[in-house]
Amino acid sequence: MKKTLLFTLLCLVFIQVAIAQTLESPNGELVMQFSLQEDGTPVYSLTYKDQAVIKPSKLGFDLRDEKDLLSGFSISETEESTFDQTWEPVWGEEKEIRNHYNELEVNLLQEETDRNLIIRFRLFNDGLGFRYEFPQQGSLGHFVIKEERSQFAMAGDHTAFWIPGDYDTQEYDYTESKLSEIRETMETAITANLSQTSFSNTGVQTSLMMKTEDGLYINLHEAALIDYATMHLNLDDEKMIFESWLTPDVNGDKGYLVAPTVSPWRTIIVSDDARDILASKMTYNLNEPIAIEDPSWIKPMKYIGVWWEMITGKSSWNYTDEFKAVKLGETDFEAAEPNGKHAANTEHVKEYIDFAAEHGFDGVLVEGWNIGWEDWFGHSKDYVFDFVTPYPDFDVAEIQNYAESKGVKMIMHHETSSSVRNYERHLDTAYQFMNKYGYPAVKSGYVGDILPRGENHYSQWLVNHYQYALEKAADYKIMVNAHEAVRPTGIARTYPNLIGNESARGTEYQSFGGSKPNHVTVLPFTRLLGGPMDYTPGIFEMDLSKLNPENDSKVNSTLANQLGLYVTMYSPLQMAADLPENYMRFPDAFQFIKDVAVDWDKSVYLEAEPGDYVTVARKEKGSTNWFVGNVNGNDARTARINFDFLDKGKTYIATIYSDAPSAHYRMNPQAYEIKKYRVDSRSKLSQLSAPGGGFAISIKEADKTDAKDLKKL
Ligand code: NOJ
Ligand code: CA
């Protein structure tokens, strides 16, 4: 009798271990398996066209002050479903996005503690997303995460394009190395930043791009990061297993959660064609639909700014050099001696407004307009800015009237200096001030260490702050472009007023000593998957000593590469970052920046290889115009593209802005050529791009007579 019972029990255990739940992607190419190990540990794995992408990997949590959620689970219920819907983004690379997946919901019970945990898997044709859900229950309410223990076991020593794991910055150049080489390369990969906290010599950030020896492209990231700490990855480089590593708060805790709640999605995008990674919309699809009822006030913008002159050191943000420290409300700026370099003055801003109006730009950004820049960083100063008081030489009302009379919008700047509590204190009045003076968009910034002291840029508290500032901005119908904030995770689907983020190494670093010439061939595979980047392209003068004799930085890019960026680096907010006088030296090349669209009906990725090149064609929203952009890595390369994305039977005029044969990002960056051709859907192009180079093409429909004198491509 006893023996029979034991046998039955053993059979039950065996059945539970052996039964794996299998989920297939809609096209059947991806297969996910979920099972429980003998001790009740949840495990998943993923294959793509029968090749291992993720080997069996454990899931769960270490909690503070209570039993972990790692093992001892049984499956109480599973449910499978299918979803297939198409939605229209307010702005984007595509007019329509299909959200098509098969879902598996696994309900787990940890019998010993009577706690319930759901793991939800969504398998798309382009990858897998999974998240943890903590339902309302009697045995789990408030809890503190010590560590999330989601594993991503790699099937080999892949090549990775990575930046160091860091709680405070993403502003790093990418390192390309084998996974096994991360440890030895870490020290050189960590370059200086005004706020940085690395945590492990095998710790890297997401979005992480990898390539396998068999030619699979794998990207690890997260989607819908809401009320939760940012995920990094730490590699066990003997077993090649990545494990989640959340950003801690000041106490070292990694998340304060209250059931019912959910984690962000953990994402694995995979394909054997690199172009599919760039085209993937999975990160957006895993976010909630739009939460703004009438988004008609959200409009893509092309802008210039009183900015690059400060970044290069030609001008200053601060008004006076007289004081070592200033106090808002006490320092008398009216009586202070101006330093003669303050760029945000009414007269100079009006010149930018004139330039914007003349060349068709939507907006002008002005930095350094408000008091407080004299001692704005490095002092852990709490009440650093009030976001409403201009310097004596910046007349807000006059500038606004002038801009309005010229049909130009002003873009507000809120540098918080990472004094986040101070920003929240002033947020309502700051947004009201913007409404009063008609500013539709704000560029915010979080330079330096966070205040409250000890917090990190990517901890749960800060993630909640960025979300709060975004949602409040929506209440005031304000669009947000946040620099140094957490990297995006597709939240712009829900809040499309998040029209930009920096959250990576942008063009400013070209003025701080330079970035790697192939940096821009990696960003579309990593940072851009979660949302657009305010990369601030369009630099025409690469020798920055010409702007400021004390700045010996060189921009590691050709001029044609700078044009290509307007298409390869998708953003509904695009800056022409250089000084107006530099554009006036190259008016024929500047024409491309004036013409290029910022919102699209369709995007076709023509060629792509992380670290080497990206070539994309996009169709302007509501128009028949197309634009093509190419950015190239360290070595010269000939792109071979055909124009079969064009409508059949139609004739177009293509204007090609390319590197001249002698161009080189270091030796000859300004050598470019402009050629015009007649093209149609059968045309083909072989186009050379220099090291650090690229090209841009504008394609406009033409009647046959307009195009008849042009050579056919
Ligand atoms: C860093 C930002 O990335 C840059 O664009 C800005 O000008 C400075 N902070 C000052 O706010
Ligand atoms: Ca920055």
Short structural summary:
Helix content is 18%, strand content 32%. With 713 residues, it is of the alpha+beta class.
Q: What is the typical, i.e. mean, pLDDT? A: 96
Kindly identify the CATH topology of the largest domain.
Answer: Beta-galactosidase, Chain A, domain 5
Shape: globular
Give me the number of helical elements.
14
The Cα radius of gyration reads 26 Å
Which assembly state applies to the chains in this document? Answer: single chain
Class computed from helices, strands and strand pairing? alpha+beta
Q: Mind telling me the CATH class of the largest domain? A: Mainly Beta
Which blocks of ≥5 consecutive residues have pLDDT under 50?
1-18
CATH architecture of the largest domain: Distorted Sandwich
Bound ligands, named by name, code or SMILES:
1-deoxynojirimycin, calcium ion
Q: Report the sheet with the most strands, covering strand number, pairing sense and barrel closure.
A: 10 strands, antiparallel
Distance between the termini: 86 Å
**Which percent range fits the helix content?**
10-25%
Overall structural domain count: 2
Indicate the proportion of strand residues: 25-35%
Q: How many strand elements?
A: 36
